[in-house]
Amino acid sequence: MQGTSKNDLIIRIGGEGGEGVISVGDFITQACAHAGLNVYTFKTFPAEIKGGYAMYQVRTSTEQLYNQGDTFDVLCAFNGDAYHNNRDFLKPGTAIVYDSPGDFTPDIPEGVHAYPIPMTETAKDMRNPRAKNMVAMGALSVLFNIPVESLRKVLTAKFSRKGEEVVKGNLEALERGRELAAALKKTDPWTIGAPKSAQDVIVMSGNNAIGLGALIAGLDFFSAYPITPATEVAIYVAKHLPKRGGTLIQAEDEIASISQVVGASYAGKKAMTSTSGPGLALMSEMLGMAFMAELPIVVVDVQRGGPSTGLPTKHEQSDLFLAIHGGHGDAGRIVLSVENVQDCIDLTVVAFNLAEKYQCPVILLSDGSLAFSTQNVPYPDPGSYKLVERERWNGEGEYQRYLLTKSGISPMTDPGTIGGAHIATGLEHNEDGLPSYTSVNHEAMQDKRFRKLKNVVNDIAPVEVDAAQGVGTADLGLIAWGSTIGVVREALQHLRAEGYKVSGFYPKLLNPLPVQQFEDFGATCKRLLLPEVNFQGQLAHFVRAETSLRPESYTICGGMPFTPEMIVKKVKEILA
Ligand code: COA
Fold first, then answer.
1. Which atom of ligand 1 has the smallest separation from the CA of 134?
2. Which CATH superfamily hosts domain 203-384?
3. 525-545 pLDDT, tens digit each
């Protein structure tokens, strides 16, 4: 189900970590996006800084893209590992551009278009072995019509910090690669789609988009401890927040970072941290504290393969149990999950708004696939986002921080507000904020804290239902969350084109679960399927627990996302 026309081309670049695979993928992505094409990328690499198999997949199309696609139309193999890892996907009609002579001799299957390029040898001859990847990129640009002027520009921009010599050497290697490819006879039909007029687009990764969303939301304070695959969020914020007068701290660990965020929130600031599963586990005590003290904080969790250190650079959607219930006692929180780069901007703003309004922690779940996926999105207009500020005390009467109100929300004060002094601790407290352990008080306060969360569903867009036009009852309804949604969207298109009656349901608010919307969707489907990238079927578990629905689980946990083809195959099996 990979690109089936010139308008939908998937190029996969594979090689050894350290050979510059990721740079080539990034450059091609930028060049295609600047040419007005839609892009959706996926990259995966080992946990080591050097060595192991690194892969970057660029999908580019004139049509909207929802995922990285299945395998590839074009494979660019820098080494034997890249060839062997992808050998089974070299189907008739696909093309391979490979290093020759190199450390492998490919056995080219019949019908596959082969383009040997002396990548290593040329770079060595140019006394610039590092530039092997640029020789390959030059060849790709000629063979598949990738705008070379854009490539030159992004190359120059990226390498200029390494010095003029590096830029010059790489530009020369690019040209040499172009000459080598121009001397070959092109036999395949692949080329990127016809560029559109330049658009007002921004091309960014999921991690960067979360950083941008936080800035739009009015982030004042950020503290984090670096952890793959979340570090890029911190790097983005570090670049931009101080310029806007905000504060950023790289803390000594995750416990310190969330503690600082809780403190900043108490001080009246919009505060956020970002981490991955192991870090979120360490933060569970302070998440409970923020719920108890009713302090608005945003915690971004970019999920990776677990348990424990697990698969640090790989994709998984396996922190849902932890996000919803991680912690001791009855500690509530709001949990949102993002589908794509656009969501990473928009839902980060929503996360801040919900945290401020409901004075509680909001966990925003992203994942390893989306963290590094680069996509084009319209240039955001910060002014178009509605921002919510916490309700502050109006100064009238005697201030009670934890006043029992109908909605459960009580006005806050910033430190220094005359008459508004109060303490916020992890101890149970009365309306004045003073320790109180009576059973009547604890029950009233727990009820207040959870009462707030009942209204969250009304503050977020209704769950999107992707129902085929004219279909009354679907034979199968698919429920998806996170970046799996984009895969399901495309799978449904293919299935409907073949006459299948299938619908999709894409919740972004996962706690509190929008139960009624689940029930309504379930009522329109004969059966339900819930694909997710974890072993235990975590969302399916919550859906079974909280609704009357009984979705079948379809789980994988190999460190890679689903592909549309996998979903299509599964649906056909179920409906056979
Ligand atoms: N000339 C000069 N420099 C070049 C170059 C060229 N032709 N091609 C690439 N480079 C540079 C890149 O700019 C980059 O340097 P930078 O880090 O200073 O920006 C470096 O070489 C690596 O190239 P890149 O294309 O970014 O990556 P790669 O495909 O070689 O793969 C990684 C290397 C990304 C796999 C590896 O460095 C990495 O980060 N691994 C993951 C580590 C991790 O997160 N572990 C988890 C710990 S829990």
1. 7
2. Thiamin diphosphate (ThDP)-binding fold, Pyr/PP domains (3.40.50.970)
3. 999 999 999 999 999 999 999
